[in-house]
């Protein structure tokens, strides 16, 4: 949350924006959490909604009219938005019960001109709002520059950190090889070029990384990839180093990032693909204005990026082994310090980061650590800050979801722990053990799943939920997301979740080389939450007499699961075998990296169930 003084209050910022809109002849403006690349995480320069409202969540939108304003968030942020946003300035609106488009249709004045920054919204979003406003004879107007930028006096500049070369020894494929694959696809489909606007796609295609956005090692840039295998890279000139120029070679032309919009105008007469999930409305507008033909197609780097090559797969295994040792040290530390009652959520998150920092190839966390005590563990997307920080109470559940960005892989792991008391007497309730064990059973069922070629993630989702369903409970998030290779911790196109047209990726067949999370959970509002998460790799299965190709999972994440919360009477013999086999692997992989008290703790944690 951005702290605001009396002289720089939310009311003053809102008034300044309304004055700017008045100067521009606009009746309103839409403010999303977004950047020009539709990124999950965005740089400080793009945190316009936080500046205007004080809201610190990762998803939300505000609509400002002359006499009223509203902020739209989903169920993850119902509590947070009320803590951070002044109800006297913004109405609270819940998505998907409503939307900015529906709210504008009901609240915008007749004939209103509503501004939007076409570099921050998708084409489909703009078309939907245009249709809603048309019912009130209104119009959606693309602004020349963002009105908030005009009144945000101390707005941070975009990062000027240099782009970094991601060497072939870690990427497993050269950029030339990747560009040739994209070129072959363009030619086979009859297209001339592809706009690559997703930052992790740019990074993967050119084998570059960066430090421009926290938690995702990317550089702010665009690429136009051509059917002849060449590419234009649009990137800040201060980010270009001799090493980068040499790495990219003659087939990649480096141009200023500010030249990107003009370069779209150079594609007159060309057929150009744009991914609707990452290509903002302004890209379509520029192509159409130039006389090019934009075609909506999935970014051609997304599927090959998701299918990790052998070098990337081994890099993940190495990163997971290193990360598992950090997690084991943390869990040991927590077992010692937690019962004393002196720890809080921030202290725990900082200590876990310190253990990860012992690696010399850690470059960042892969997301903000979810360090969640007691009732906060019931919030799947909780993020601790100074205002929300809770003590970790002895005799309670603590959930920690975390990950690291290592040069050789991206990790993501959740462990749910019972925090004991000094006398060792406090034990989980029967309900807590029941729910934990049902989550564990679902985790094991998904880990052991065998499925035929062509199976989408949605077909596997119920494997993880079935035992919770049998008890009349469920969880409200997906079961698995894709993970990048020293890239985004949330990567498509694959996903394990309930089939839904509004959830991209649930119909994507799982393919060998894809990495996904396996993370069923259970959340009792106001009381506790449970999640068990490992990463898994899709691999081929050798089955005698199999009629066609069948796949399964190789577990990548190795760290102890808390046996205190397990009700063994609910486990089958096969599930107990899985537990014992898994923990034997944990011991074999992690024990050589530990000594002293952490090693003794690990040996005990990994004993047979």
Task: Please explain how this structure is put together.
It is a single chain. The protein has 609 residues and is of the alpha+beta class. The chain folds into three domains: 6-151, 3-Layer(aba) Sandwich (Creatine Amidinohydrolase, Chain A, domain 1); 164-298, Creatine Amidinohydrolase, Chain A, domain 1; 307-605, Creatine Amidinohydrolase, CATH 3.90.230.10. The chain is 33% helix and 20% strand. The chain has 19 helices and 28 strands. The strands form eight sheets. A six-stranded mixed beta sheet has the order 4-3-2-1-5-6. Helix 14 (310-337) packs across helix 19 and helix 16 (430-447) packs antiparallel against helix 17.
How is the topology of this model organized?
Blueprint: H1 10-23, E1 28-32, H2 48-53, E2 61-65, E3 69-73, H3 78-84, E4 91-94, H4 100-107, E5 113-116, H5 123-134, E6 139-142, H6 147-151, E7 164-165, H7 168-171, H8 175-189, E8 193-196, H9 199-206, E9 208-209, E10 221-226, E11 231-235, H10 242-248, E12 252-256, H11 260-264, E13 271-274, H12 281-290, E14 293-296, H13 302-306, H14 310-337, H15 345-356, E15 362-365, E16 370-373, E17 396-402, E18 404-406, E19 409-410, E20 413-419, H16 430-447, E21 451-452, H17 461-470, E22 480-482, E23 491-496, E24 515-518, E25 521-524, E26 528-531, E27 534-541, E28 550-555, H18 573-590, H19 596-605
Parallel strand pairs: 1-5, 3-4, 5-6, 8-13, 11-12, 13-14
Antiparallel strand pairs: 1-2, 2-3, 7-9, 8-10, 10-11, 15-18, 16-17, 17-20, 18-19, 21-28, 22-23, 24-27, 25-26, 27-28
Domain Peptidase M24: 316-540
Organism: Tsuneonella suprasediminis
Family: Belongs to the peptidase M24B family.
């Amino acid at each position: 949350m951005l702290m605001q003084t009396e002289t720089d209050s939310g009311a003053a910022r809102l008034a300044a924006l309304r004055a700017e809109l008045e100067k521009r002849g606009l009746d309103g403006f839409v403010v999303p959490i977004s950047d020009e690349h539709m990124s999950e995480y965005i740089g400080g320069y793009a945190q316009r909604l936080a500046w205007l409202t004080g809201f610190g969540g990762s998803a939300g939108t505000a609509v400002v009219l002359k006499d009223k304003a509203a902020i739209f968030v989903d169920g993850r942020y119902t509590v947070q938005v009320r803590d951070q946003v002044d109800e006297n300035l913004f109405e609270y609106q819940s998505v998907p019960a409503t939307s900015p488009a529906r709210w504008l249709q009901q609240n915008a004045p007749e004939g209103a001109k509503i501004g939007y920054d076409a570099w921050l919204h998708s084409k489909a979003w703009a078309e939907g709002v245009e249709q809603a406003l048309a019912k009130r004879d209104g119009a959606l107007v693309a602004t020349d520059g963002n009105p908030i930028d005009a009144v945000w006096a101390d707005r941070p500049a975009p990062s000027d950190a240099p782009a970094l070369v991601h060497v072939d020894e870690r990427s497993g494929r050269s950029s030339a090889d990747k560009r040739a694959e994209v070129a072959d696809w363009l030619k086979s489909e009859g297209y001339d070029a592809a706009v690559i606007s997703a930052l992790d796609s740019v990074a993967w295609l050119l084998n570059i990384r960066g430090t421009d956005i926290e938690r995702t090692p990317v550089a702010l840039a665009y690429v136009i990839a051509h059917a002849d295998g060449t590419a234009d890279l649009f990137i800040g000139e201060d980010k270009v180093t001799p090493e980068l120029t040499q790495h990219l070679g003659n087939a990649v032309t480096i141009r200023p990032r500010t030249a990107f919009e003009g370069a779209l105008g150079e594609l007159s007469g060309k057929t150009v693909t744009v991914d609707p999930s990452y290509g903002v409305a302004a890209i379509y507008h520029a192509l159409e204005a130039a006389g090019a033909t934009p075609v909506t197609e999935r970014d051609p780097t997304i599927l090959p990026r998701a299918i990790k090559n052998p070098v990337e797969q081994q890099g993940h295994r190495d990163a997971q082994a290193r990360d598992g040792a950090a997690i084991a040290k943390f869990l040991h530390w927590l077992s010692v310090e937690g019962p004393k009652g002196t720890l809080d959520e921030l202290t725990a998150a900082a200590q876990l980061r310190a253990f990860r920092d012992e690696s010399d190839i850690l470059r960042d966390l892969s997301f903000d650590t979810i360090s969640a005590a007691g009732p906060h563990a019931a919030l799947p997307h909780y993020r601790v800050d100074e205002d929300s920080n809770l003590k970790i109470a002895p005799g309670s559940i603590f959930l920690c979801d975390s990950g690291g960005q290592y040069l050789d892989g991206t990790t993501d792991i959740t462990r749910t722990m019972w925090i004991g008391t000094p006398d060792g007497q406090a034990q989980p309730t029967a309900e807590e053990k029941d729910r934990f064990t049902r989550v564990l059973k679902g985790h094991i069922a998904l880990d052991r799943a065998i499925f035929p070629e062509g199976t989408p993630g949605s077909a596997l989702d119920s494997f993880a939920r079935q035992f919770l369903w049998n008890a009349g409970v469920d969880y409200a998030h997906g079961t698995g997301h894709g993970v990048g290779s020293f890239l985004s911790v949330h990567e498509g196109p694959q996903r394990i979740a309930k089939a839904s047209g509004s959830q991209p990726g649930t119909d994507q067949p799982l393919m060998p080389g894809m990495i996904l999370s396996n993370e069923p959970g259970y959340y009792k509002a106001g009381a506790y939450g449970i999640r068990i998460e490992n990463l898994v790799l899709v691999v081929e299965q050798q089955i005698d007499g199999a009629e066609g190709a069948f796949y399964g999972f190789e577990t990548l994440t190795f760290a102890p699961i808390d046996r205190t919360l397990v009700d063994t009477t609910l486990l089958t013999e096969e599930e107990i075998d899985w537990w014992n086999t898994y923990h034997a692997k944990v011991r074999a992989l992690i024990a050589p990296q530990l000594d002293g008290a952490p090693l003794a703790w690990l040996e005990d944690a990994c004993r047979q169930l």
